[in-house]
Amino acid sequence: MRDQFPDGVLPDEDFLHMVRDLPSGPTAIYEAWMDLARITSWWGAAGFIVPPDRISAHQHVGGDYQACMVNTATGDELWWGGEYLVLDPPHRLEVTQQWQQSDGAPAGPKRVIRIELHPMDAGEGAPVTRMTFREGPFAAADGEIEGYESGWNESFNRLAGYLARQRGPE
Fold it and tell me: What's CA 79's distance to the chain center, in Å?
């Protein structure tokens, strides 16, 4: 879903806004984003993996990270990286993200990703957390946002499956 940010956003810029209710508490989801051993279990669109030896991070505000998705059919590599802007466990995570060459040279526009986690009242059942995800800005006219939405949907499906497996049988 497209979302216009009201403050400081030009009319020709769009942001990707996605909301998912996930089958875990905020701490488990935050850790799934931050723990490099966990994120490699779910990060990436269908047909891609993030090998553990292709991700590095200095996880503090101002620290950098770099990762690589590998196409399992072709072996093609897609590198990206960025900087940690906000780390507020287990509620909020904000980073920049930019496609890169394998040496870290920029290969695309820099965008900001914001993840907010809010526990939901699930009654007597297992915990549920609403994850709100925003990424942008995207140029409104280029149609690129739809591809990102598709890729993130696939990643979030994998994240939901990962969290369900970690929770175990009910």
Answer: 14
Q: Please answer whether residues 113 and 94 qualify as being in contact, where contact means their C-beta atoms are separated by less than 8 angstroms.
A: yes
pLDDT digits (tens, 9 = 90+) for 107-143: 999 999 999 999 997 777 778 999 999 999 998 767 7
Contact 27, 167 (CB under 8 A): no
DSSP secondary structure, 61-121, as one string:
TT-EEEEEEEETTT--EEEEEEEEEEEETTTEEEEEEEEE-TTS-B-S--EEEEEEEEEE-
The whole-angstrom separation of Cα 44 and Cα 58 is: 20
Q: Which two tokens mark 35?
A: 């723990």
Structure tokens at 137: 């800005």
Residue 13 sits at φ, ψ, to 5 deg, of: -115, 140
Q: How many residues appear in the chain? A: 170
Which tokens sit at 53? Answer: 């030896």
How far apart are the C-alpha atoms of 149 and 153, rounded to whole Å?
Answer: 6
Residue given tokens 């950098």 in the structure block: 64
